[in-house]
Every structure is written in C-alpha cells, then in structure tokens.
Design goal:
This protein is an alpha/beta fold and about 350 residues long. The protein contains twelve helices and seven strands. The strands form two sheets. The chain has a five-stranded parallel sheet with strand order 2-1-3-6-7, sandwiched between helices. Strands 4-5 form a two-stranded antiparallel ribbon. It is elongated, with a radius of gyration of 27 Å. The N and C termini lie far apart (about 55 Å).
C-alpha cells in the first residue's frame, strides 16, 4: 500500500525562480561517506551533467562536498561560513550520516566539522544543522543514516543518534516551505538521489511544482511501490514457488527477503545502468530504505515473521495455478496438427464454402 502524500501545499508556497544554486553538503554525521561515493555512479542525471550545465532549464549549480571538493581545510570550510552569513543564497543543505544527541554527551562531542575561529573549539555537527537548516532553500537527508538514523541508531547505541527530521522536527519547513526531503538507502541508490536533486533544482527554477513526499518524507514517485512489485522473482511468489537455497532463481522470501513490505524501487531501477537490485541478483531485501531499519528487520537471512503464513497461503493457491498453467503450457507449446507435409490438406479449408460466399 502506497503511503499517503502529505497535503502541505496549503502551507508552502512556491519559491521565486532562481538562476544559481549552491549545494552545501555536510558529511559530518555518523556515517561512512558511502552516500557521497554512491552518487558518483549516477547517470540519470550524473553529477557532471548537473554541474556542467548540460541539462536544459536548470539553474547554475555549485557543489560543496568535502569528499568531492577541490578545496581543502579552511578554504573549503569558508563555503559553510558564507552559507551561514547568507552569502550563498539560495542553497540546498544536504546532510549525510545520522545525527548524534550531543545533549547526552558529558564531555567532548560525538561529531564535528571544522574549528570555530572565535572559540578555537570544534563546530559540532548539530551546530552546523542549527545554523544552516533554517537558512536553506531546501534541506535533504541523503541515505538511511541521515533519514532515519540507520545502523548507528540501532538498539544499544551510546550516541542516541537519530534522523535529520527527528532532530529538526517532522513539521520543519525550509525557507521555500519544503519539509525535510528524505532519500533513504544504505547507501542511497545513486540515481534516486540525483533525480530528487534534479526535481528540487527544477522547482527552484520555477518549472516544477512542490515536490511530492509520502508520510515518511520520501519522494512518492521513487518509494511509492514495494521491492516485490518490481522484482524479477515476483512471478515465482505468485505461483507459490519458493527457493530453498541461495543461487536459486525462485522467490527468496523464505530465505529472509522482506521485499513484499519494503518501499523501494531498486528492483525496477537496478543499481547502475539498470543492472542489479538486491533480490534481482540473489540478495535478500533487508529493508534498508525503511524507518525501522535495521532493528525491525533482524535477524537478517531468516524467514520474516508472517512469511510462513503468507507464503503458505499463496503456496496452496500457487500450486493449483501452476498445475493448471502447466496443462495449458503443454497444450499451446505444440503446433496445430494440420501443419505437415504430404498430399492431403487437413486445415479444414473447404473450397465450396468460398464459392458460396
């Protein structure tokens, strides 16, 4: 069942069109920079096409990402200070990595980027979010760590970390009236992120309406369907034909795949150039795009709760349908008997019937 679209058009107005946009990308959350690395593989569109102005109708785009930037040290940090002072207006603020709870840290800090020239102390990740999010034209959480907390936020973690919307509040709105835009994935599927960025850039240019998001703030056109609905193996499920070991081409629900209940388009889109997508290539879906990941999907590679009941029910139906289809297949998999050599025509053709007509 697709999540409902948030009706926030009444409270958010379309921002005036702009001709130049900066993307200020904070990777100092609790993460691995995997989302940044992932998007370098994007092709629909690619980072290069966006930054080089190869896509018609887009504003000029400047990217400030510490992994991809040519600048280092204070030269790079200056872009963050400019954004704070309002000198990069407008800018899209992208956050990668989960947000630690600095309020529970008795000494030191969990995560930071740069040094405050006024105090000589590290600038905590949460401080950057406090400084930049309210001034941003749009705020985007890249990857599951930033969207919902991810691996770092699982039970027993010492940081109390969370997703960006948890930190800012789910009713947060950017300067353009846009909620936090969540693009989950561990890591984020490259084209999913760049397509979302493209939509926002077109919105900034005044040629796209408000970005449609579901109740978990994910773009609806990307996360409105389940993994199962686009899976190459879905036909086996419908016929109650389940794999019992890895390497089988059949449905892998009983081996631990959560695809039927996970909102993600990777089986449709693939990973790179349409190739891949976890179940399509034999890997079970572990729900990495979902707010409950990872805790609610563990232990991995074991039959999910309820799968035995649902697969058992569909198994009875599927075996019956499979048998009936087998009969039909046997019938239609043979040529009609009148297709043969020899002196006798057995097609049923009667010349006299043609003459009467």
């Amino acid at each position: 069942m697709a999540a409902e679209t948030i009706p926030y058009g009444e409270v958010a107005q379309q921002a005036p069109a702009v001709k130049e946009v900066h993307i200020v990308w904070l990777t100092a959350g609790l993460g691995c920079d995997g989302d940044t690395v992932s998007i370098t593989a994007a092709e629909q569109p690619s980072i290069e096409d966006v930054l080089l102005g190869a896509i018609p109708g887009l504003p000029k785009v400047h990217l400030h990402n510490p992994v991809l930037a040519p600048q280092v040290g204070e030269e790079f940090m200056d872009f963050f200070y400019q954004a704070e002072r309002g000198e990069l207006d407008p800018f899209v603020f992208v956050v990668e990595g989960s947000i630690p709870n600095e309020e529970i840290k008795q000494e030191g800090y969990w995560a930071a980027q740069g040094t405050d020239p006024r105090t000589g102390q590290p600038i905590r990740t949460t401080e950057w979010i406090d400084r930049l999010a309210p001034k941003a034209w749009a705020v985007v959480a890249a990857g599951t760590c930033a969207t919902y907390g991810g691996i770092h936020a699982m039970a027993g973690n010492p940081t109390g970390c969370m997703g960006l919307a948890d930190y800012l509040g789910w009713d947060f709105r950017s300067r353009a009236g846009i909620p936090v835009v969540n693009v989950p994935g561990c890591p984020v599927q490259p084209d999913n992120f760049m397509e979302t960025a493209l939509y926002l850039l077109y919105q900034a240019a005044g040629v796209s309406p408000m970005i449609p998001l579901d109740d978990q703030l994910r773009p609806t056109w990307l996360f409105g369907k389940t993994v199962h609905e686009g899976c190459d193996r879905a036909g086996y499920y419908e016929q109650g034909d389940f794999a019992t070991e890895y390497g089988s081409p059949k449905c892998i629900v009983r081996l631990g795949c959560w695809g039927p209940v996970v909102n993600c388009n990777v089986t449709k889109r693939g990973w790179m150039r349409g190739v891949g997508g976890c179940p399509n290539v034999g890997g079970v879906c572990i729900g990495c795009t979902m707010p409950g990941f990872p805790d609610k999907f563990m232990p991995f590679m074991e039959e999910p709760p309820g799968a035995a009941v649902s697969s058992g029910a569909v198994g009875f139906y599927g075996r019956t349908i499979r048998a009936l289809r087998g009969i039909t297949n046997t019938t239609v998999n043979k040529e009609p008997k009148w297709r043969h050599p020899g002196s006798h025509l057995t097609t049923g053709y009667r010349p006299e019937s043609v003459e009467r007509g």
